[in-house]
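B., you asked whether I could sanity-check this one before it goes into the benchmark set. Here's the sequence:
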Amino acid sequence: MNNFRKALVPLAFFPFKNIVSAQKRDSIPQKVVAFVTDKFPQARDLNVEYTQVTPYNYSSAFQGADLPDNKVKNFSQINANANIYFIKNRKWMLSTTLNYRYTSVETENSNSLFSNENSNKGDFHYHSEALNFTYFSKLFNKIAIYSATASLDGSDQHFERIRGMVTGNIVLKANAKTKMTVGLAVMIDPSTRVPVIPIFTYEHKFDNGWVADIILPQKLLLRKEVFSNGRISLGSEMSNTSFYLYQANKTYEFRQLAINSGVIYEHNLGSNFIGTLKTGIRAVPNARIFDKEESFKDYIFEAKPKPSFYFNIGVSYNPFGKPRKK
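And here's what the prediction gave me:
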C-alpha cells in the first residue's frame, strides 16, 4: 500500500518539540541536541520495525469503473531507516535521512495491478535518501527554525523522483510544562496533493504524569512513563506506504496513508537500544495508483479498504549521540 505524501511530516522537523526543552534560554545548540539525549528521542539514529496487518476487504475502481470487491489476505512490511547528523554549530545543522521499505501484499483474487503478471501477490521495494539543512535564528524575538530538504527515491529497479521541501517554524512557548511551535511546510513536488501544509507541535506535562504529545498533522498522543524504563502512549499517528509499479513500459506510483489508533509501548533496553510495540486499529481513507508523471489527484486506480487491526514491533539503536561540532 502507500502514502498520500511521503514527506508529510518528515524527520527533518521531528526534533522541534524537543529543541525547545533546553535549559539555557539563548543557547540554540543546547536546544538542538536536547532531543538526542532524551530517554525516548523523537528521531532515532537507526530503526528497524516489522508491521503485520490482519486480513481486510476493500472496494476499488479502475479508470472510473467499479471492480469486484476483493480482500487483502496478507499485508506485511519491514522498515529500516537511519538519521545521521553530520555537523552542527550555533546557527545550523546538516543531516541525512536514509529509508528502506519492503512491502508484501497478497489478495484473495488475482489483480494484475500488483505485478507484471496476473497474480494475487506482490513484493515491492522502496527506498529514499534525503539531505537536510536546518538553520536556527530569531524572529519577533522568538526562536525560529528553518529547514530545507532534498530527497531522492526509487525502487529496486530504478531511481524515480527528486523532491524538495522547505519549512519554517517559530517557538511560541517553552517552559518546564509546555512547549509549542507553529509553522508551514512547502512541498516542491508536482505529484503532491497539498503543496503547503501547516505545522503545529504541542507538548504539555500534566500533574498526574501524563504528557500530551501532538505533532499535526502527523500524530496526537497521550504519553506516560511506566515502570523504570518504559513509556506507554495512547492515541493516533499516521504512517504511509509508497512504491512504484511498472506496467506496459510506464511507471506508476502507489500511495496510501494509514491512520493507526491504539496503544504504543516503548522500553529503554539500555546501551542505547529502545524496543517498541504498537497495536490497534488501522484505517485507510483511500489508496491510489497514478502515472508517475501526473499528480495524486489524477489517479487511474483507487481502493477504499475496510478498517483492520495492526501489530508493529521495532527496535532502535542510537549510537551517534550529539552531532559533531565544527
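One thing to flag: The two ends are 42 Å apart (CA to CA). Otherwise nothing jumped out at me.
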